[in-house]
Amino acid sequence: MFERHEKGIINAIITGANNARAERLNGAIQEIKTIGRGYRNTENLRTAILFFHGNLDLLPHKYL
């Protein structure tokens, strides 16, 4: 098994790359789903995700 993944393991050690950022975002999305206890539709869930983690700006541009 090591031989099949040797190149990827060495690359990860050298570059220090990992998927921590993606896992953190996935955890945050799961937290939004838990707090919301179910959204009526997927658009409301999408809006909540963008609002809390996508820097969604709800203020109209004419007020900036």
Question: What topology does this entry show?
Answer:
Layout: H1 2-15, H2 20-36, H3 42-53
Radius of gyration: 19 Å
Give the overall silhouette. elongated
Low-confidence stretches: none
Structural class by helix and strand composition: mainly alpha
- Average of per-residue pLDDT values: 80
Classify the beta-strand content into a percent band: under 5%
Distance between the termini: 57 Å
Quickly count the helices: 3
Q: Quick one: how many beta strands?
A: 0
Main beta sheet strand tally, sense and closure: none
Task: List the secondary-structure elements in sequence, H or E.
Answer: HHH
How would you explain this protein's 3D organization?
- The protein is elongated, with a radius of gyration of 19 Å.
- It has 64 residues and is an all-alpha fold.
- The protein contains 3 helices and no strands.
- The protein has a domain of 30 residues.
Describe what is shown at a glance.
By secondary structure, the protein is an all-alpha fold.
Features:
single chain; 64 residues; mainly alpha; 3 helices; 0% strand; elongated
